[in-house]
Specification:
Blueprint (H helix, E strand, L loop, with lengths): L6 H18 L6 E7 L5 H15 L4 E7 L1 H14 L5 E5 L3 H6 L12 H4 L4 H4 L3 E2 L2 E2 L2 E7 L1 E5 H6 L9 H14 L4 E3 L8 H11 L5 E2 L2 E2 L4 H15 L12 H9 L3 E6 L2 H9 L5 E4 L9 E10 L6 H11 L2 H11 L6 H4 L2 H4 L2 H9 L3 E3 L6 H16 L5 H15 L2
Parallel strand pairs: 1-2, 1-3, 8-11, 13-14
Antiparallel strand pairs: 3-13, 4-5, 6-13, 7-11, 7-12, 9-10
Helix pairs in contact: 1-3, 2-14, 9-10, 18-19
Keywords: Signal, Transport
Organism: Ketogulonicigenium vulgare (strain WSH-001)
Family: Belongs to the bacterial solute-binding protein 1 family.
Length: 411
């Protein structure tokens, strides 16, 4: 279970620590501490170089970096905030911002953000961190999801283009399985972060919503069609065996190894393919459609904690990180979409055919709703999806259970 930063979870720990943390601050006056989750092997080298450049220009400020695995980031932040020992800045999932803002542990940034600074960003990426008109974070990382496909595997099965719909996906997957039983037609994620999102792809494409009128929206015909589609794929051997043993990185690895025909993921896979599988022939297309076209838009945000004693210095570092030069270095290294308007005009982005596909999909992107308890909702959803994937329950029963759990979690 992912820990949730809420009053029930933190309870008396946050209440008792609040006076200490809000008065004592998070760092010495000349030191800005930054907590960073690891995106790839390039993450820490980038931030180390950026910190060195910033400190060279600002010798009175020291930047201290701490990198944490994504899987343990939420737990670390909850623990640190409860004890009043959190960093000054941290990269978090944008979907966590509402919980943090409601508890008053992150600093509103509106007093720092000038019109010129806001003008650096594409609105679609800056908006998700704004709650009730107040900005609580800056989009440090952004991506959308698309479908990578192995062109050689498709050609061997008699196809020269990827399937446009989920019905066509079943047809093509069956043809791939028939043409080469050793190939995995469709990589299906069944473990860890974004397992729920993999289910949302077909659900969204059939017109479904995660939440409707403040309640769970998955127990619908769209949700049933989506989950039944995946159940059919598993039952017919059109996915990898043992789906619930595979996290996102695992199904990406199957694709990089040339063992699977399709995987839905972000633009960062392009960088990995160039480095790790340069001879693999692939294309990128839209997530298959149902009655409509949809994909997942994702941002992670960097936030400033309210108990920081070095807010001005922390903001100066944020301002530096969001200059065009720094954004180019970070997004090029990680394979993310540009969030900065000037950055997007640079040739390494403007002329990148892979990135163009993802950029075009943003018009149909769905973002995780900003609601309290989002991580609990994800956990409850994943548990039921895994039960279906393991053959332990029916799609109908799983969707009803998700609906009940989510409605109990929602404020």
């Amino acid at each position: 279970m992912t820990p949730r930063l809420t009053k029930p979870v933190l309870g008396r720990s946050l209440t008792s620590a609040a006076a200490l943390s809000l008065v004592a601050g998070a760092a010495f006056a000349d030191t800005v501490r930054v907590t960073i989750p690891e995106y790839s092997a390039n993450t820490m080298p980038y931030f180390q170089a950026a910190a060195a450049d910033f400190m060279a220009a600002n010798p009175d400020t020291t930047i201290e970096l701490e990198m944490v695995p994504w899987a343990s980031l939420q737990q670390k932040l909850v623990t640190d905030i409860s004890g009043g020992v959190n960093s000054d800045l941290a990269v978090i999932g944008t979907r966590w911002i509402l919980d943090y803002a409601e508890l008053g542990v992150i600093e509103p940034l509106d007093s720092y953000i000038t019109p010129d600074f806001a003008g650096r960003f594409f609105d679609v990426f800056l908006t998700p961190s704004i709650i009730d008109g107040t900005n609580y974070g800056l989009p440090i990382a952004a991506s959308a999801r698309a479908m990578f496909y192995n062109t050689d595997i498709l050609a061997a099965a008699g196809y020269d283009a990827p399937p446009a719909t989920w019905e066509e996906m079943l047809e093509v997957a069956r043809a791939i399985r028939a043409s080469n039983p050793d190939v995995i037609p469709f990589g299906l994620q069944g473990k860890s972060t974004e397992t729920d999102v993999y289910f949302y792809y077909p659900m969204w494409s059939y017109g479904g919503e995660i939440l409707t009128d403040g309640a769970s929206g998955v127990n619908t015909e769209a949700g049933l069609t989506a989950l039944t589609t995946y159940q059919t794929m598993i039952n017919e051997g059109l996915t990898q065996p043992g789906v619930t043993d595979y996290a996102r990185a695992d199904i990406e690895n199957l694709f990089k190894q040339g063992r699977s025909a399709f995987v839905i993921t972000g633009p960062f896979l392009s960088n990995q393919l160039a480095e790790q599988a340069p001879d693999l022939n692939y294309g990128i297309g839209r997530v298959p459609a149902g009655t409509t076209t949809a994909t997942y838009g994702v941002t992670d945000s960097i936030v400033m904690f309210a108990n920081s004693d070095v807010k001005d210095e922390a903001w100066a570092f944020l301002d530096f990180l969001f200059t065009t030069d720094q954004r180019v270095k970070f997004d090029e290294a990680e394979g993310f979409l540009p969030v900065n308007v000037e950055e997007a005009a640079q040739p390494q982005f403007a002329d990148n055919e892979d990135l163009k596909v993802f950029t075009e999909l943003l018009a149909n992107a769905q973002f995780a709703p900003l609601v309290g308890g989002w991580e609990e909702i994800a956990d409850a959803t994943i548990t039921q999806l895994q039960s279906v994937y393991l053959g332990q329950t029916t799609p109908e029963a799983a969707l009803a259970a998700i609906e009940a759990s989510v409605n109990a979690i929602l404020p």
